[in-house]
Structures are given as C-alpha cells and as structure tokens.
Amino acid sequence: VLMVGFIGLLGIQRLSGHISTIGDNAFPSIDNLWKVNAAQATADGAFLAQFVPTVSTDKRQVEFKKLQDALDRINQGFGEYDKLNRTPDEDKLYKGVLPSWDKWKNTMQELLRLNEAFRQYEITFPEQTQAELLQAGKENTDEYRKAKEAAAAQRKVYEYLSNVERPAFQEASDQISKLLEFNQNLGAEARE
C-alpha cells in the first residue's frame, strides 16, 4: 500500500509540473505571442496602405493610426511576454526575435520617411506624368523636372520596400513563428 501511495504521489507531482508548465508558461507565452503575431499582420496591412498611390490622405491617416495602434499592441504583447518565466532555450530564441523586430520597425520608419518625401511632389503617377509631358513636348520644363524627381523618389520607395523592408518583415515573422512553435511544442510535451 505504501508503494502504491508513493507511486501515486510521484504521478501527482509529475502531473502538477506539467499543469504548471502549461498554465504558467506555455499558455501565457502562446497567448502573448499570438497577440504580437496578429498585431504584426494588422500593422503590415496598414503600413502597406501607405504606399498605394491612389489612397487619399484621409485614408492614409486612418491606416497610419491603425499602424500605430498595432505597433502599440506588439509592444504590449512583448511587454507581457517579457514578464513570463522562460526556459533557457526559449530565452535564447526570444533574444533572437528582438533584434529582428527592431530591424523591421526601423525599416518601416525609414520607408515611411522615403514615402513622405515622394508624396511631397504631389504627383500620383510620376512616370505617366513624364510620358504625357514628353508627348506634349514639355521635356525642358520645371514641371517635367519635378515629375522626373518624383519618379526617382517613387522608385527609391519601391526599391527600399522590396529589397530592405520586406526581407526585414519576413525575418521578424520567421523569428516569431519559431518562438510560437517552441511554445506550442512545450505545451504538447507537457500534455504527453
């Protein structure tokens, strides 16, 4: 009877440890990381809306507010996640996530700056405007030079978007996915 009681006690302690792992670590971690992941998707959509030439100023402001709110939710999610206990392996993954997120946020800020520089020209389709001015024989005018400068500024935006920002976004997404997967596996192991 004593042996059966001892085995039962060990089983209860093991079960308690698994419940603790799920309740104190895996579930809160997954919850906060999914909040970050969802906010990143919202931020990305609102961010990309800034670069659609036909989006009105009012709509861009609405989308910019969504972007700011999503970035706040990302910071809150990371803030809550940061307070949680983590295993050494999880902490190592987390420390790999933060530089990727900072890099993405920095590339977003730079791209927004470049886009604002382009928007200052107030020419929605600069290459089309250039073509129309060329066709009208106005290639030596200030209007044509402005359209040419606007086209160069717009190319700079799109090149930065495709060559710098999108890879930084993907890296940040991949890092958070690794961390989510780690926590999901941790929860699955505890359930076994």
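[next item in queue]
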Amino acid sequence: TMRITKKDIKTVDDIADYLQQMIQVIKKKGTEIDSEEIAEITHILRQIAKKENILKSGTKLIKEHLAVYEAKHKKDIAEMEKRLLETKDKKQKKVIEEEIDYQRKMLQALEFIEKNEHRIIEFSQSFNRLLASAVQKLKSHSPGDALSDIEQAYIGLKEIKHIFEKQKELEKYLRKTNRRTISDLKKEKGR
C-alpha cells in the first residue's frame, strides 16, 4: 500500500516515485487488485493532479525575474567586458565580473523560457489528462488500461525531467541573486 499526505508530494521526483509504485502494484496485482487499492491509487492520482503547480511554478518565477531584468537590469555584455579589461581596480573588476555572470545567467533563463515554457504547459496538460483517464479506468475496474495511462505519464515525466532540473537550477540562482540584491540594498541604505 502507498500512504500519502498532501505534504508528501513536493517535487517532480516525488511524483515519479508514486507513479512508479502504482505501476508496480498494478503489474503485480493485475485484475486481482482490490477496491481498497484502487481507491488508494485513485486518491494519489488526484493528489498528484492537484500538485500540477510543481510542474508550472518555476516558469512563473523565472518569468517574473525576466520581466524585472528586461525592464531594469539588462546591459550589453560586450560593453561590460570592455570595461572589465580597462579597469585596474580589483574591487571594480569583481563587481563587473559578477554583473557579467548575472547578465549571462539571465540570458540563459530567457533562452530557457523561450525554448521550454510551451513544452512544460503542453506536458502538464497531457500529464493531467493521462491521470484523469487512469482514474476513470480504475473506477471502471480496468487496471490494465489504467496501467497504460500511468506508464505513459511516468515515461513523459522522465523524458522531460531534465527540463525541470534546469528550471530548478535557474530558480535557485535567481532566489540567491534576489537575496543578495536585497542584502546589498540594505547595506547601501545603512551607509
């Protein structure tokens, strides 16, 4: 059996683990799966579907940071590299290097969103359709058909997992950068 609480599903890996467990249970039990197990699996599938924000929330955060970047912080990297070569002050060089790094990361984030946002949305919709279909098939006592939907959802999740990993990496950088910027502003106010 697979007990679940709402707080259990926090990451894409958690979702993948539950799907994998369901696949194993259905394969092992086949048509011998009892109504209690069906109820438990359908409950977990519904909980996973409710957590679709796990799949989409990162793109929202990245887009918010990109909007601020486009409006206030976007600078020409070539010009900054030229300034870096011209400056002699070590502190100033470090500041310029950090700014160049930030500019490059933001360009990566922009490229990531342009390349993957549509794919993430499409995957999320398809994923939820497969979960809903599996729930219906389990309710009508067709575990073999439900298994097919759950396996497709699992395979799709594994195929797109690298996108979520890159998204997480960008989110982590943006959060760190945001905290550092806030800290720098507080220091500046203190002067």
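[queue empty]
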